[in-house]
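Suppose a classmate hands you a notebook page containing two proteins, each written out with its sequence and a corresponding row of C-alpha cells. How would you begin to make sense of it? This section walks through that situation. The first entry is reproduced here exactly as it would appear on such a page.
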Amino acid sequence: MAKQEQSSTIEDKVLQETLHKMAVKFKQLRIDKGFSSYEDYAWAHGFSRMQVWKMEQGNNLTMKSLLRILKTHDISLAEFFKDFDTVVK
C-alpha cells in the first residue's frame, strides 16, 4: 500500500472514530436532558427528526448543526470536546 493511501486510511479511521464519539455524546446529552426519544428531543428544540437521528448515528454534520445542538444544552465547543484527544495530522 502506498504511503498516501495508508495516510488516507488512517485519517478516515480517526474521522470515523471521532464521529462515533460525537454521536455517543449527543445521545447521552439528550438522555441527560430527560428525552428518551430523539424524536421528542428534535420536536421540542426545532430540529428535524432525521437531523437528530443522523447526528446520533455518527453521520457527518455541519458546524451550524453542531452549534445549534450545543446551544440547546448550554455547553461550549471546548466543553463538548474536552474528552476528545485524537488529532489528525
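The notebook's second entry, a different protein, reads as follows.
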Amino acid sequence: MLAVTDQGKIDTEYKSGPGPVLLAVTLRPGGNDLNLAKIILLLFGGLCMIVGTIFWLIGAGPVLPFMGIEVVLLYAAYRFGQNRTRLCEKIALTERALLIDWTDGRGHR
C-alpha cells in the first residue's frame, strides 16, 4: 500500500506497495485572495465607523452599535471562508489501490 507522511504527503517510493502510483492529485477549494479580503474588511469597517459616527453626531446614537455588529459579522464570515480554503483532499491511484486522504480546515483528518 501507499504510505502517507505526517505532513499528509503521499510517499510514492513505498517499496512493498501495490505498484507504481498512476495518479496523485491534491484537491483544494477555489483560491481566495485573503489579502484582498483583509483590505475589503478594513475598508468596510472604516466606512461603517464613519457612517455610524455621522449618525451619532446628528442624534441617532443607537446606529453606531449596529454598524459595529455588521463589521463583526463580516469578520466572522471572513474567518469561516478562510477555514474553508484550507480544506484538502489527496487522492492516489495505483494498479490495485485507491487512497483518499481528507483534511478539514483545522488540519484534522
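A careful reader of the second entry would note: Residues 32-86 form one domain.
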